[in-house]
Design goal:
single chain, 394 residues, alpha/beta, Enolase-like, domain 1, TIM Barrel, six-stranded parallel beta sheet, three-stranded antiparallel beta sheet, 16 helices, binds magnesium ion
């Protein structure tokens, strides 16, 4: 079997990848919704993979892996990897989890990082209300993640939150005032009052914190037993890791410290893992270099007693399928992956093969169909193809 083409079309906001073959079967994958501009970058890899046997996934990846980088520039390589696994599974008549080593679990735990109803202010009371709504969600999530500090509009809503400049950009970073620090702690206490010990609370915090503030926050939250503090120092769209700074924070507190969603390839996790710089890593299969890369990093982390909670909120429904396949195979250090939602809502009409409901009691049953086990319904999806991409399914 040989690859005959690599196609990409933006469906809604997600770039969708299709790898076609001379055997008449195709592999599909999806790039995060926030990266609709990546289509030309995806197509750049055509020249490297056409003519290759897609079932030799690693051999194809060796041709393109070094032509990627930290988020967002690892996404195309990662999506190609997942489309190759979809193809390899379909060609073998096996679900992808079987090709990755087989199932460790029959159902995979997910956490709520993207099922949201919207917040109007960022007071402790508003955080408590929002948490009460999420606690009642029909998915029955057992872990909920919430944004605070620099990973939320909070700095713009709380006067004198920090000593840095409030310019509305995502690049906010700086020392917190005492008022800012107390505000974050009060919001976390309010959320924990709602959740009790029934549902785990994870906090996405940055990036942007200074090490002393990060340690003060983590120590103050120790009695509350939060699941983790995510991306305090570096994180989303930061093209480096700063493992030594994370190590200072992690070793200064008993609150679990988490990072890794933007990091590309195992080599860039090496310091975090070998130096025990964090307690939990959160790679995204659509940024790290794909699901086999994520599996390798998970195994290496497990050797070092570091846990894993993969990121994935923007990965769409094809990304959800890939997360289910790989999460089924991860070692015992697996906590849960971040549940992606279909957006716009019509995504649920064009993807076939997902369970209904998808999440039950906070878990997803692992399915057994070949490849990733979901299919784009070309007839239903065609009307959403943008001008110029009408031939995507042909
Ligand atoms: Mg995050």
């Amino acid at each position: 079997m040989k690859i005959t083409d690599l196609k990409c079309a933006v469906l809604g906001q997600n770039p969708i990848i299709r790898i076609t073959t001379d055997a008449g079967i195709s592999g599909f994958a999806e790039v995060e919704a926030s990266k609709s501009y990546l289509k030309p970058h995806v197509l750049f890899y055509q020249r490297f993979i056409i003519g290759e046997d897609p079932t030799n996934v690693e051999r194809v990846m060796l041709k393109i892996r070094r032509l990627g980088s930290f988020k967002p520039w690892g996404s195309a390589v990662s999506a190609i990897e997942m489309a190759l696994w979809d193809l390899a599974g379909k060609a073998a008549g096996l679900p992808v989890y079987r090709l990755l080593g087989g199932k460790v679990r029959d159902r995979v735990r997910v956490y709520n990082g993207g099922v949201r109803s919207g917040m109007t202010d960022y007071s402790p009371a508003a955080y408590a209300d929002d948490m009460a709504r999420m606690k009642a969600a029909t998915e029955g999530f057992t872990i909920i993640k919430q944004g605070v500090g620099f990973h939320s509009p909070m700095p713009g809503h709380v006067p004198d939150f920090f000593y840095g400049q409030q310019d509305g950009s995502l690049a906010r970073r700086g020392p917190l005032t005492e008022r800012g620090l107390k505000h974050v702690i009060a919001c976390v206490e309010a959320m924990k009052n709602v959740l009790g010990d029934e549902i785990g609370l994870a906090l996405d915090c940055g990036p942007g914190w200074m090490v002393p503030d990060a340690i003060r926050l983590a120590k103050a939250l120790e009695p509350l037993n939060v699941m983790w503090l995510e991306d305090l120092i570096t994180g989303d769209y930061v093209p480096y890791v700063s493992a030594d700074l994370y190590r200072e924070v992690t070793h200064g507190t008993s609150t679990p410290i988490h990072t890794g969603e933007q990091i590309y390839l195992r080599q860039n996790f090496q310091d975090l893992i070998e130096k025990h710089a964090v307690n939990i890593i959160g790679p995204d299969p659509c940024d790290i270099g794909g699901i086999a890369e994520l599996k390798w990093v998970a195994e290496y982390a497990d050797l070092h007693s570091i846990l894993i909670a993969p990121h994935g909120v923007g990965n769409g429904l094809l990304g959800l399928a890939a997360l289910v396949q790989v999460a089924a195979t991860l070692p015992h250090n697996y906590i849960a992956f971040e549940y992606p939602v279909g957006n716009p809502e019509w995504w649920y009409d064009i993807v076939e093969g997902l369970p209904d409901p998808i999440v039950k009691d906070g878990f997803i049953e692992v399915w057994d169909r070949p490849g990733m086990g979901v299919e784009l319904n070309a007839r239903a999806a065609r009307k959403y193809l943008p001008a110029g991409d009408e031939d995507f399914f042909d």
